Amino acid sequence: MHWWCPRRLRIWILRAFGAEIGNDVLIRHRVRIHWPWKLSVGNSSWIGEGAWILNLESVSIGNDVCISQDALICTGSHDFNSSTFEFDNGRIFIEDGVWIAARATILRGVRIGENSLIGATALVASDTPAYSRVLGPHSVSKKRSEGHE
Q1: Would you say residue 142 lies in a domain?
Q2: pTM greater than 0.90
Q3: What does the pLDDT look like over 21-38, one tens digit per residue?
Q4: Is residue 145 a part of any domain in this protein?
Q5: Overall domain count for the chain
Q6: What confidence tens digit (pLDDT) does each residue in 53-84 have?
Q7: For 68-126, what is the HEC assignment?
Q8: Residue 51 CB: number of other CB atoms within 10 A?
Q9: Which of 31, 88, 94, 138 is least crowded, fewest Cβ atoms below 10 Å from its Cβ?
Q10: What distance lies between CA 62 and its chain's CA centroid?
Q11: Is 91 within a domain?
């Protein structure tokens, strides 16, 4: 069972814990934010149900951004070559107009350029320039034939 909290109260609580949240932001139920004081969200952005922002470092989300259901924004990692498995964390920047589709994963140290589309289930481990299209691993482009459905 999940505890339900009204939208305005969610925003108020996040701001009370140091998050910078713009106007007309919608944060749906079951969104997990690790450290609110390391989160910045611009105006008119939307974070879908079940999204997880694991922000051990800062996460900056621009204006008019859509982060869809169950997406993972993860600033944390470890240095595989370290004998003590040291942290290897990095900030994440999501610029204006980006759509991160359902169950996509954005890894540490990445900048998503403005007006980019990160497709459902896509994994992004390096910067994407503005107007990029990053599709999931099993993306298939279907062409519609005339007269066939």
Answers
A1: no
A2: no
A3: 999 999 998 999 999 999
A4: no
A5: 1
A6: 999 999 999 999 999 999 999 998 777 787 87
A7: CCCCEEECCCECCCCCCCCECCCCEEECCCCEECCCCEECCCCEECCCCEECCCCEECC
A8: 24
A9: 138
A10: 11
A11: yes
